[in-house]
Design goal:
With 422 residues, the chain is α+β, with helices and mostly antiparallel strands. It is 31% helix and 19% strand. The strands form three sheets. Strands 1, 2, 11, 12, 13 and 14 form a six-stranded antiparallel sheet that branches. It has a four-stranded parallel sheet with strand order 4-3-5-6. α1 packs across α2 and α4 packs across α6.
Amino acid sequence: MPTEGMFRDKEWVLSPEAFPLDAPTLSLIQSLGPALRAFQRACNDLYFTSLEQPDLTWVSTLLDRGKPARVVELGRHERWRADLPSVLRPDLVLTEDGLAISELDSLPGGIGLTGWLGETYSAMGQNVIGGSDGMVAGFAAAFPQEDILISRESGDYQPEMEWLVGKLNDSGNSLPSRVMNPWNLTPNELHGSSIYRFFELFDLDQVDISFEMLRMAEQGELHFTPPLKAFLEEKLWLVLFWSPQLQDYWHSALSPEHLALLRRCIPEGWVVDPTPLPPHAILPGLDIHSWDEVKRFGSKQRELVLKISGFSEIGWGSRSVSIGHDLSQEEWAKALDEALASFPTNPFVLQRFHKAKVLQHPAWNEDRQDTAMMKARVRLCPYYFVPQGTEETQLAGVLATVCPADKKILHGMRDAMMLPCV
């Protein structure tokens, strides 16, 4: 489905119906917002605590692996030490038992797409979560004064961000905003600005005038959101949540309710660290002594997902993902060897694979010009915004990626439906 040029080079399957969420699933998604905000706060605090406590130094050392000294220095800057991202989007696999979190994204694409879908399906009389302007209102509350800065690497998202800014300016809910590109700017034009950065920190060398912008931010002449914290954008946090050495910390940093909810939704996981274990030790949960044993796992044991943690050009989408039971044992061993070799610069994580449940949803068939039910598996992406000056999360909309049932990796593709949730 081309969308009049607004979503550059993107196509998907149409459906006359938004994706319905039952009451328990919607309630779970609503509860996850505050829990994930609390988890992100706890992650930030743990990183800085680990810089000061010798018994926790391994945490910051792990999270800083492979990052240039300049990026590490930016993450630790006192000026934004307490700052957190004001938008959070988890990727949730809809399973028979509930929801499984596969990723937490604090610099998510799809804000304009989800807003446009919400407006479009609301106009069709459907009760979209967040309402027809939920995404626009959520962004305005979280970023009332921010202009949006988009790098070349993120340029595919520019049309949807321009749509969003147009809606923001039409709504009167915020100061006039604009979409900017760094190659069209001088540092003087940005002095005193608040910027929503739509570029990745691993891509800093490719971002025009990045040196000048970062210097201005450190001196308080420019404000960036999300904060310049590469350590906070790692998938490693999802497996550190299960680390036996950190259980006392999570119990102290999170409420019992939030802890229980996150245990229910975060798949068990491990850091793919090649350091040999002592003879008497095992990897908890896997009950093995070495990664060589994991390479020899049978198909049922290989119901595992292997992926890079973050600071990399292949750290988003599905480009680094290997699903164990979808590979031969030889392919699995090769993927694991590559992950182990990558540890010094780009750590990988291993997580339990949670199978998405199969359901049916009506899909438009362009050739037949009619609608038929499609067997599908679904990824849900709720967008939580934190209004400026608060710690509350606001669920502004939920994007469903409804993929053909034979797909194991669920992501945006031309064979999938992209739908708002009702």
